[in-house]
Amino acid sequence: xxxxxxxxxxxxxxxxxxLRDHRLNEKDRAKVPVKKKADPxxxxxxxxxxxxxxxxxxxxxxxxxxxxxxxxxxxxxxSIKAKLDLVQSMMDCLYAKCIPCITDCVMGEIEKLGQKYRxxxxxxxxPRFERLPCMHKGTYADDCLVQRVTQHKxxxxxxxDKELKRRIRKIPGVPIICISRHRYNIERMxxxxxxxxx
Length: 198
What we know:
This protein is an alpha/beta fold. The chain has helices at residues 73-81, 86-94, 104-113, 118-124, 141-151, 162-169, and strands at 55-56, 59-60, 67-71, 98-103, 130-132, 155-158, 176-180, 183-187.
């Protein structure tokens, strides 16, 4: 006759002695935290988000020609599909000089897409495009663009991505350029107080 196998007990934890146990020496015991009473005469500090001085309600006073336009990866791809010249179409849309800006993240995304998107990569490396360096880790362009327009309100975002558009609409004073009916259209920010539009 062989040995009978014992069934293993699952989720059995090794019992540890508490740091407040009476069997421990005084020096090994956990110290009971002493709560400090709040000083009523002390100045109370609280974090208040700083609103940019360039905004007049929803109207952004920092936007003006030449417009700096942050271009997303899919915007370049859709422009190629719609057979639109990026810089010329932007100027036709805004009736002013436009400087397309491309971040390192967007450039990294286009490079990752591979050989199929070599035309988009060649357009992105155009000398008319201004290259913006990224200091953060990773190459997720959506977070990078949202962070950039939150810090600096001087950009217009060019994108076709619905999720990115939804995130940018929550940031006041940042217009969006999108493609519809084979041309560029600008989505203006809501302003019901009658401030001039750019």
